[in-house]
Design goal:
Blueprint: E1 3-8, H1 13-28, H2 33-39, E2 47-49, H3 62-69, E3 71-78, H4 86-98, E4 104-108, H5 113-116, H6 119-122, E5 133-136, H7 142-152, H8 154-160, H9 165-188, H10 195-230, H11 233-242, H12 254-263, E6 274-280, E7 285-290, E8 296-301, E9 306-310, E10 316-320, E11 334-339, E12 345-349, E13 352-356, E14 362-367, E15 379-383, E16 388-393, E17 396-400, E18 406-411, E19 418-426, E20 432-438, E21 447-453, E22 459-464, E23 468-474, E24 479-488, E25 491-505, E26 511-518, E27 530-537, E28 543-551, E29 554-559, E30 565-570, E31 575-580, E32 585-590, E33 594-599, E34 604-612, E35 617-623, E36 626-631, E37 636-641, E38 649-653, E39 658-663, E40 669-675, E41 680-686, E42 692-699, E43 706-707, E44 712-717, E45 722-729, E46 732-739, E47 757-761, E48 766-770, E49 775-780, E50 791-793, E51 797-801, E52 807-811, E53 817-820, E54 837-839, E55 845-850, E56 854-859, E57 864-870, E58 878-881, E59 887-891, E60 896-901, E61 906-914, E62 920-925, E63 931-937, E64 941-945, E65 952-957, E66 959-963, E67 968-973, E68 976-981, ...
Parallel strand pairs: 1-2, 1-3, 3-4, 4-5
Antiparallel strand pairs: 6-37, 7-8, 8-9, 9-10, 11-12, 12-13, 13-14, 15-16, 16-17, 17-18, 19-20, 20-21, 21-22, 23-24, 24-25, 25-26, 27-28, 28-29, 29-30, 31-32, 32-33, 33-34, 35-36, 36-37, 38-68, 39-40, 40-41, 41-42, 43-44, 44-45, 45-46, 47-48, 48-49, 50-51, 51-52, 52-53, 54-55, 55-56, 56-57, 58-59, ...
Helix pairs in contact: 1-7, 8-9, 9-10, 10-11, 10-12, 11-12
Length: 1012
C-alpha cells in the first residue's frame, strides 16, 4: 500500500480544520518503542488528503481513485454537512468496494452520529445497522477540539499501527512518563537540588490526573442519574460502573456509588415511583393499548405507524408503517389498533381490517365493501373475549371473527336508525355489542343506543333522555351506563354543558336511575367522560358496587344500587387516566403530573400520598407492572413503575400500620411501634427470628423509640407525667425504675451517644434527670425555659436558653454553670423547628441559631464567639457537632446538608441534594471501631453518607435502622418490617454484572456519552 490512510471530508471550514489536524498528527506521531517492537511499524508513513473538492457530475479523478485503491484505511471526517456531500459518499462506497468496511474509520466533529454519519457508514449493503470505529473530537470551539485531539486521534492511529487502542494509549503514556523521567534524570545530574522539584512535578502530574478522573466520575454519575430519569436503567448501570474503581484504577467517588444504588433499585420496597424505561416512536405518540396478558404494549404514533414493545425489557417486537393508497399515494387513515390474546395485531383502517403476526407476517386482510368511492369507515372496535371486530359506517355495521371472516353485516334502512361512530363497546362476556345511533341528527330530541346480539345479529334499540350520547359502559351483562348530553337548540354543533348518567336495564328496557352532571363546553375534552366499575366489602359487612366516572377535573362515584352520589372530588387539573387497584383504592392521573390516591370505602382523598411524576400527562394507564404515560407532543411513551429490590424479604408482619422500628445496640432485639385500637403500642421482637417477646406497652403518636446503652429503654408517659426505665429482655419489656411527677412541656433531648442525662422544662422550672440512677440531678423552679427549640445535651453537660435570652451551660456532674449574656446569641425560641442549639462532645463549643440568620459558635473555654456562619434556618433547623467535635452539621430551610469545619473556620461541604428534615444522626462503626457510614434519619427515610466527605451514597425510603453486625437494613412497609442486605461495593458490582448480562457500553455509546 502506498498510503496508510485516505482522509475523506467535506470542504467546509471546520471539516477542513479537523482534516488538517488529523493529517498532521498522524504523520508526526512518535510510535512508542514497545509498539514498534511488537508491530514492526516505525511510523505512519503517508496519509492522503485531497486539497480540492471536485464538482458534482464529474468522475473521481484518476489520482483519487488510485489513492483510494492504494490506501489501507479510509478516515471520514463526520459533521451534519457530511451526508450532503456527494463526493464523500462516493469515496466511502468506492473504498468499501475496493477493500471492506472494517477498514473505515470515522471522526465525529459536530452533531450526533445519526445525523453526521453518512448512510454508507451506518448501514451495510443489506441494510443492517453497523457501528464504525469512531473518534469524538466535538467541542464548542476549535481550541476545545484541539485539546481532545491528542487522545482521540490515537483511536485512529491504533488500527493504522496494527495494535489496539488501549495498548497504544498505555504505551504512549509509558513513553511520556519515560521521557519525563529521562528529562528528570538528566536534570538531576546537574544537581540533587533540582531532584525534589521534579519529583514534586511528577506527583503533581499524577495528582492532576487523579483530579481529572474524579471530575469525570462525577460527570458520569450525573449522566447515569439523567439516564435513569429518562428510563434507560441498564445504560445507567453501565455508566455508573465506568465511574467506579471496578473498571480501572480510578479513585472512589461517593456520587458514583449513589448512582449505582439508584440504578440497581437497591433498598427499594415497591412504594416509590420511578421511571422504568422509555419507548421511542418516530412521531408523537397518539395512543397505546396493553396486550390482554399485559406482557406487551401496542403504540400508535402521529404517522399511523404501529409498534409493539415487550414491557419486560422494552424490546421492539413489531414495527408497521402506515398504509398508502396505491393510486393516490395518500395515507389511509388508521382508526384503531388492538392486540389479541394470541398476540396478533388487529388494525382497523378506513377501508380495511388487517391482522399481523408479531413477526410482521400478514395473517389476513378484509377489504371492506364500499358503496361508493367516497365512502369510508369511521370506527373500529375489537374484543379479546369474543375474538371479534366491529367496523362501522354511518349506515352499515360489519362484524368480523378472528379469522377475518364476515359474521354479520347490518345495513340501516332508509329512514331507520343510523350508526354513530363515536361509541361502540362489547359486553364483558363478549356476547353483545352496544353502540349509539340516531334517526335524524337534526330533529332527534332523545338519544338512542343499539344492543346487538353477536351470535344472531339481531338487535334492540333503547331510548335515553338526551340526544347526544357521550359514553357507553357495561356495568355487567344486563346493565349499561349511558352518559348523554343535550345539544344547544340554537347551535346544533354545540352542547349546552349539562348531561345525564343513566343506568339502563337491558332485561326490562327501563332506566333504573339517572344522575346529572355538568361540564365546561370550552375545554378540549368537551363532554367526554370515562367510566369504570368498582366493588368492595364495607366495614359494616355489606357489599358495595360503585359506578365511577371522571370528566375534566371532576371525579364522581355513584352507588349502582340507588343512583345516589357516594363520593365526589375536584382535582387541581384535568384527570387524564386512572388505575383501580382491585379493592377500594383508586389512583387518578392528572394532566399536571400528579398521581392522586382515593379510597372509596372511607370516601377520602389522601393528599399526603400524592406522587409527582413530573410529566405532562395526556393519558396514563397501568398494566404489566408499569404505568404507561403519554405526554403532550412527545414521541416517547414513558413507562414508570414501583421498583422493588430483588433481595427484599418480609420479616415481621403486623395487623395494623407500622410507625417505627429500631435495633438495640447489639442488634439482638428490635423495638417496634405500631398503630393500636386506641392509639399506639410498642413491643420487643427477636432480631433473628422475628418472634414477639412479652407484652406490648401502650404509647402515644408523639412517643419515639429511645433505646439507651445496655438494653435500657426509656419511655415518657405524658398523661401520667411518668418517666419509666425498662430493661429489654427475652421476656420483653421489664420495668426497672420509674420517676413520677415529670411535667415536661417539651420533647426532651436525650444524649444520643451515652444516654446519661435527660433535660426537660416546665412553664416555670428547669430539670435534669440522671438516667443511671433515675433521680433528679438538678432543678430550678424559677427559671423559665423553652427547651424544645434551644436545648443541647452531651455526655455530662446541658445547654439551654432561658426565656430572657440568656444561654446557660451546666455540667451535670460538677454542677458548675456558665451563663452567657451575649446580645448576638439571641435565638428564635418559638419559630425554629427541631435542633436549634448544639453542644460539642468535648464540651468546648456551643452552637446556636441566631435571629439575624447566623449560627454563632461560642468557645466555652476561651469564653468568646469563635465562628459566625451564615445560615437560613428560620422555620427549620438542624445543628449538630460530629463525634470528634471537629465539624458542625447544618441543615436549614433549604434542606441541603452543609458541613462546617471548626479547624478551617470554613464550610467544607455543601450538599447537592435536598434531604428530608433530619431528626437524628447515627454513626455506624465496623469491627475495627471505625465509622463506616453516617446515617441521617427521620421517621420515614434514611440517607447513607460517607464519614469523610458526607456525600450521599444511598437513599432508603421508609428506612428504620441498620445493623452492621448482621449486615441488614430494616424498613417499614405499611404493616410489615422488610429487610435488605447491607450492600458492599463488591456485591453491587456482582448485581450490576448480573443485570447487564456482563455487557459494557458499546463504542457508539461511549462516544455519545463522552465516557472516554
Amino acid at each position: 500500500m502506498n498510503y496508510n490512510a485516505f482522509i475523506s471530508y467535506r470542504h467546509s471550514d471546520l471539516d477542513m480544520f479537523v482534516a488538517k489536524q488529523v493529517h498532521k498528527r498522524l504523520e508526526t506521531f512518535k510510535v512508542p518503542h514497545k509498539v514498534k517492537k511488537e508491530t514492526g511499524m516505525k511510523k505512519i508513513e503517508r496519509v492522503f488528503r485531497d486539497q480540492e473538492e471536485l464538482p458534482i457530475g464529474s468522475n473521481l479523478s484518476d489520482n483519487i481513485s488510485q489513492a483510494l485503491e492504494n490506501s489501507e484505511y479510509l478516515i471520514v471526517i463526520c459533521s451534519p454537512r457530511t451526508p450532503e456531500s456527494y463526493w464523500v459518499q462516493t469515496e466511502i462506497k468506492t473504498f468499501i468496494e475496493m477493500h471492506d468496511r472494517d477498514h473505515v474509520l470515522a471522526v465525529l466533529i459536530e452533531g450526533e452520529p445519526e445525523e453526521s454519519f453518512p448512510e454508507a457508514l451506518r448501514f451495510d449493503e443489506n441494510g443492517n445497522p453497523v457501528e464504525p470505529l469512531a473518534a469524538d473530537v466535538r467541542g464548542a470551539t476549535q481550541a476545545e477540539m484541539k485539546k481532545k485531539m491528542p487522545t482521540e486521534f490515537m483511536r485512529l492511529a491504533a488500527p493504522l499501527l496494527h495494535c489496539t487502542y488501549d495498548d497504544l494509549r498505555q504505551r504512549h503514556k509509558e513513553r511520556q512518563m519515560h521521557r519525563m523521567m529521562a528529562i528528570m534524570g538528566g536534570v538531576m545530574t546537574l544537581g540533587l537540588a533540582f531532584g525534589a522539584y521534579y519529583a514534586y512535578t511528577a506527583a503533581q502530574i499524577q495528582q492532576n490526573y487523579r483530579d481529572k478522573q474524579i471530575n469525570q466520575s462525577r460527570y458520569l454519575s450525573d449522566t447515569a442519574l439523567d439516564l435513569l430519569e429518562e428510563g434507560d436503567r441498564i445504560t445507567a448501570i453501565q455508566v455508573s460502573l465506568e465511574a467506579l474503581p471496578c473498571t480501572d484504577d480510578r479513585p472512589y467517588v461517593p456520587q458514583a456509588e449513589y448512582a449505582l444504588t439508584q440504578s440497581l433499585n437497591l433498598y427499594t420496597d415497591g412504594s416509590q415511583l420511578g421511571t422504568e424505561r422509555v419507548l421511542e416512536c418516530d412521531l408523537t405518540v397518539r395512543a397505546f393499548r396493553y396486550s390482554p396478558d399485559h406482557k406487551n404494549i401496542l403504540v400508535r404514533d402521529g404517522g399511523d405507524k404501529v409498534y409493539v414493545f415487550r414491557i419486560e425489557d422494552g424490546e421492539l417486537l413489531l414495527e408497521l408503517d402506515g398504509l398508502l393508497d396505491e393510486e393516490t399515494y395518500t395515507p389511509i387513515r388508521l382508526l384503531d389498533a388492538y392486540m389479541s390474546e394470541d398476540n396478533h395485531v388487529m388494525i382497523g383502517y378506513e377501508d380495511r381490517v388487517v391482522c399481523y403476526d408479531l413477526d410482521g407476517t400478514l395473517s389476513w386482510e378484509y377489504k371492506l365493501p364500499l358503496e361508493s368511492e367516497f365512502e369510508e369507515y369511521s370506527a373500529f372496535t375489537n374484543d379479546e373475549t369474543a375474538h371479534m371486530s366491529v367496523s362501522i359506517r354511518y349506515n352499515r355495521l360489519v362484524l368480523l371473527n378472528d379469522q377475518g371472516e364476515e359474521v354479520h353485516t347490518i345495513a340501516a334502512e332508509e329512514g331507520g336508525l343510523s350508526f354513530s361512530s363515536s361509541n361502540c363497546t362489547f359486553s364483558p362476556d363478549g356476547k353483545h355489542v352496544m353502540l349509539s345511533g340516531y334517526y335524524d341528527v337534526e330533529e332527534d330530541t332523545t338519544g338512542y343506543v343499539l344492543y346487538l346480539d353477536v351470535a344472531t345479529g339481531e338487535y334492540q334499540v333503547f331510548e335515553v333522555t338526551n340526544d347526544s350520547v357521550a359514553e357507553i359502559y357495561f356495568v355487567d351483562e344486563n346493565r349499561v351506563a349511558v352518559a348523554s348530553n343535550r345539544r344547544d337548540p340554537e347551535n346544533g354543533l354545540m352542547v349546552d354543558g349539562t348531561g345525564l348518567v343513566e343506568l339502563l336495564d337491558i332485561s326490562t328496557g327501563n332506566i333504573n336511575w339517572s344522575y346529572p352532571y355538568e361540564f365546561d363546553i370550552y375545554t378540549i375534552s368537551g363532554s367526554s367522560l370515562t367510566f369504570f366499575y368498582s366493588d368492595f366489602t364495607g366495614e359494616d359487612g355489606n357489599q358495595y358496587q360503585l359506578l365511577n366516572y371522571y370528566l375534566n377535573n371532576h371525579f364522581v362515584s355513584i352507588d349502582v344500587a340507588t343512583g345516589e352520589k357516594w363520593f365526589a372530588c375536584d382535582k387541581s387539573s384535568s384527570i387524564t387516566g386512572y388505575h383501580y387497584t382491585g379493592d377500594h383504592m383508586v389512583i387518578l392521573f392528572e394532566r399536571a403530573g400528579q398521581m392522586d390516591v382515593l379510597t372509596l370505602d372511607d370516601r377520602l382523598e389522601h393528599n399526603d400520598n400524592m406522587k409527582e411524576t413530573k410529566k405532562d400527562i395526556r393519558y396514563a394507564e397501568a398494566g404489566g407492572g408499569v404505568i404507561a404515560i403519554r405526554e403532550g407532543y412527545s414521541p416517547k411513551l414513558v413507562l414508570m413503575s414501583y421498583p422493588q429490590d430483588q433481595n427484599m424479604e418480609s420479616f415481621i408482619k403486623f395487623d395494623t400500620p407500622l410507625d417505627q422500628a429500631r435495633f438495640t445496640e447489639d442488634s439482638k432485639y428490635i423495638i417496634a411501634k405500631y398503630k393500636a385500637a386506641e392509639d399506639y403500642e410498642m413491643a420487643v421482637y427477636d432480631a433473628e427470628s422475628g418472634e414477639k417477646l412479652g407484652d406490648s406497652i401502650p404509647c402515644k403518636s408523639y412517643n419515639d423509640i429511645v433505646i439507651g446503652k445496655n438494653h435500657d429503654f426509656f419511655f415518657f408517659d405524658h398523661p401520667k407525667n411518668l418517666l419509666v426505665k425498662y430493661d429489654i429482655t427475652d421476656e420483653g419489656f421489664k420495668e426497672v425504675a420509674r420517676l413520677e411527677d415529670v411535667h415536661a412541656d417539651n420533647d426532651y433531648p436525650f444524649d444520643l451517644e451515652n444516654y446519661s442525662f435527660l433535660a426537660y422544662s416546665r412553664a416555670y422550672g428547669f430539670f435534669v434527670i440522671d438516667l443511671e440512677t433515675m433521680e433528679i440531678n438538678f432543678q430550678d423552679d424559677q427559671l423559665e425555659v423553652y427547651l424544645a427549640d434551644a436545648g443541647g445535651v452531651n455526655n455530662e453537660t446541658v445547654a439551654f436558653v432561658s426565656n430572657d435570652n440568656v444561654l446557660h451551660v451546666k455540667n451535670c456532674k460538677t454542677r458548675k454553670e456558665q451563663i452567657i449574656r451575649e446580645d448576638s446569641m439571641k435565638t428564635f425560641l418559638s419559630t425554629v423547628y427541631a435542633h436549634g442549639l448544639a453542644l460539642s462532645n468535648d464540651g468546648k463549643y456551643v452552637a446556636m441559631n441566631c435571629i439575624d440568620y447566623k449560627i454563632r459558635v461560642y468557645d466555652l473555654e476561651e469564653e468568646k464567639i469563635v465562628s459566625e456562619i451564615p445560615f437560613g434556618g428560620r422555620n427549620s433547623a438542624f445543628i449538630e457537632f460530629t463525634p470528634d467535635s471537629k465539624n458542625l452539621l447544618l441543615q436549614g430551610d433549604d434542606y441541603y446538608l452543609q458541613v462546617y469545619s471548626m479547624e478551617k473556620q470554613a464550610m467544607i461541604q455543601t450538599g447537592s441534594t435536598q434531604l428530608f428534615t433530619i431528626d437524628d444522626v447515627q454513626y455506624l462503626k465496623n469491627e475495627d471501631g471505625e465509622v463506616e457510614k453516617v446515617v441521617l434519619r427521620n421517621t420515614s427515610e434514611m440517607f447513607l453518607l460517607t464519614p469523610d466527605t458526607y456525600d450521599v451514597t444511598a437513599e432508603i425510603v421508609n428506612g428504620c435502622d441498620i445493623s452492621l453486625e448482621n449486615d441488614i437494613v430494616m424498613c417499614s412497609k405499611y404493616k410489615e418490617i422488610v429487610t435488605f442486605p447491607y450492600y458492599s461495593l463488591d456485591e453491587m458490582y456482582e448485581l450490576a454484572k448480573e443485570q447487564t448480562k456482563g455487557e459494557g457500553l458499546s463504542p457508539e455509546q461511549r462516544v455519545r456519552l463522552n465516557v472516554d
